[in-house]
Amino acid sequence: ALGLGSLAGDLGRAAPELPLADQKAVLVAGALLGEPDLLIVDELTVGLEEREAMALIALLRAAAERRAVLH
User: Fold this and answer.
1) What is the pLDDT of residues 22-42, one digit of tens each?
2) Could you please report the per-residue DSSP string of 12-68?
């Protein structure tokens, strides 16, 4: 559970139709589907407002509980 419940109402929408913060959360979730031991992200918070960036960082921290995350 990575806190992606806010996307539940958008399941029928294509990723490019989502707000930028949600697009980036979907990218992270997709990268985690293969359960990698290491996740490397670069400039993931570019273009986001501070609140959105902090939410995305929280998502990465949750992911880092079970793997190495470099950002």
Assistant:
1) 888 888 888 888 888 888 888
2) TS-GGGS-HHHHHHHHHHHHHTT--SEEE-SSTTTT--HHHHHHHHHHHHHHHTSSE
In sign, the C-alpha dihedral spanning 20, 25, 8, 33 is positive
4-19 pLDDT, tens digit per residue, is 555 555 566 777 888 8
Tokens in use for 18?
């989502």
What does the alpha-carbon distance between residue 50 and residue 37 come to, in Å, rounded to a whole number? 28
pTM higher than 0.85 for the full model?
no
The number of C-alpha atoms within 13 Å of 56 and in the hemisphere containing its C-beta is 24
- In eight-state DSSP terms, residue 11 is T
